[in-house]
Amino acid sequence: MRAHIAVLPGDGIGPEVSAAAVAVLREVATQAGHVVEFSEHHIGGIAMDETGEPLPQATIDACLASDAVLLGAVGGPKWSDPQATVRPEQGLLALRAKLGVYANLRPLRVHPRLAAHSPLKPENLAGIDLLFVRELTGGAYFGRKQREDDAAIDECRYTVGEVERVVRRACGLARRRRRRLTSVDKANVLETSRLWRATTTRVAGEYSDIALEHQLVDSMAMLLLTRPSAYDVIVTENLFGDILTDEAAALAGSLGVSPSASLGDGPRGLYEPIHGSAPDIAGQGVANPIGAILSAALLLRHSLGLDAEADALEAAVDAVFEHDELTRDLGGKASTQQVTAAVLSRLAGKCRVAA
Ligand code: NAD
Ligand code: IPM
Ligand code: MN
């Protein structure tokens, strides 16, 4: 198998964690006899420093020519002036739109060895196995924005088609899991949520084997803390999904271990840990690389169709947790590079050369 991966390290800890993801992908490719090429491109603050734009055309072209895109993180205090009209985060949003990746998959499991770092009691952690499907290219993130001296507007707009396609994706994923779908909205207040709820009810109705329930987002925020193991696939709009997935990530012990896959209609996807550029620890070599490494596993599975290799990489990460080879956010002393080396050594000999 041959593949080309566009790597966008970005800002802060982005380059540190994306280097870890590239290292494990290289190891998988070498072991399994695949030819995987990587090319690096700028996005975010570093791209603004180089070109004045957070998403240069050369980066867009490289991503569109790739089989998959691996991203670190964007943003940081250097580019966070509230008066600024150009921001690193705009580059990420524009990239998601250009790639048409409307479904953002954010899986969450809690490894028993990390339970001590979760804010929840161990008995509430048992059996958590969630898959968030966050709508990624619509809603308030992409609506009309307006600023006046004493007022501001962020328009939140959803079309039926935008809701349909992400709900279909969520239903398809639920079919391969426990067949339970929870749709999260704020239909008691927002018109967009009433459209969301009606569309979800209709689309999910076509999947007779899937049990659908609706939750209001405020209540869902509470339920994630009180009954997290009761849920399977959770589908929601862009902004609610952003907030709920950071909350849920904390259950697993650290924001640093949560991966994501952003998918559209084709095989090409965008893969990034859900955390940001972590300016408070950038450059210290202590960032947790697991979120980026597990994003690489999702890349193998969803863009390259290498399920066995993805499974092997996830098993290697579990083995690293089991042996307490952990970064500071999880109470350990290991550096980013040491954890990456630990994953590489647990992966040794675990991927077979394809016949
Ligand atoms: P953040 O996710 O960067 O950090 C939140 C906290 O979690 C910090 O204390 C940080 O040290 C810690 N943390 C995050 N990732 C970690 C890791 N891998 N290992 C260990 N600790 C980790 O959120 P923030 O501080 O609110 O945002 C900082 C910048 O990142 C902002 O500019 C924001 O816009 C940007 N951001 C980018 C992305 C992205 O590129 N996908 C995502 C979220 C935030
Ligand atoms: C994320 C981030 C981004 C988002 C920001 C940086 C634009 O928080 O990927 O979760 O809100 O989508
Ligand atoms: Mn976020």
In short:
By secondary structure, the chain is α/β, with parallel strands linked by helices. The protein contains 12 helices and 12 strands.
CATH superfamily of the largest domain: Isopropylmalate Dehydrogenase
User: Biggest sheet, strands in spatial order?
Assistant: 2-1-3-12-11-4-5-10-8-9
Q: Helix- and strand-based class?
A: alpha/beta
Order of helices and strands: EHEHHEHEHEEEHEHEHEHEEHHH
CATH topology of the largest domain: Isopropylmalate Dehydrogenase
Tell me what the CATH architecture of the largest domain is: 3-Layer(aba) Sandwich
Instruction: State the total count of DSSP E strands.
Output: 12
The tally of structural domains comes to 2
Structure report:
There is one protein chain. The N and C termini lie close together (11 Å). The protein is α/β, with parallel strands linked by helices. The protein folds into 2 domains: 1-101 and 265-355, 3-Layer(aba) Sandwich (Isopropylmalate Dehydrogenase); 119-251, Isopropylmalate Dehydrogenase (3-Layer(aba) Sandwich), CATH 3.40.718. The longest helix has 19 residues, at 14-32. It has helices spanning 14-32, 45-51, 57-64, 88-99, 122-125, 160-175, 191-205, 217-226, 238-251, 290-302, 307-322, 336-347; strands at 2-10, 35-40, 68-73, 103-109, 129-135, 145-148, 151-154, 180-185, 211-216, 233-236, 261-263, 269-271. The protein has 12 helices and 12 strands. The chain has a 10-stranded mixed sheet, with helices on both faces. It is globular, with a radius of gyration of 20 Å. 41% of the residues lie in helices and 18% in strands. Nicotinamide-adenine-dinucleotide is lined by residues 13, 17, 73-76, 89, 92, 255-256, 272, 275-281, 287-288, 291, 329. Manganese (II) ion binds next to α9.
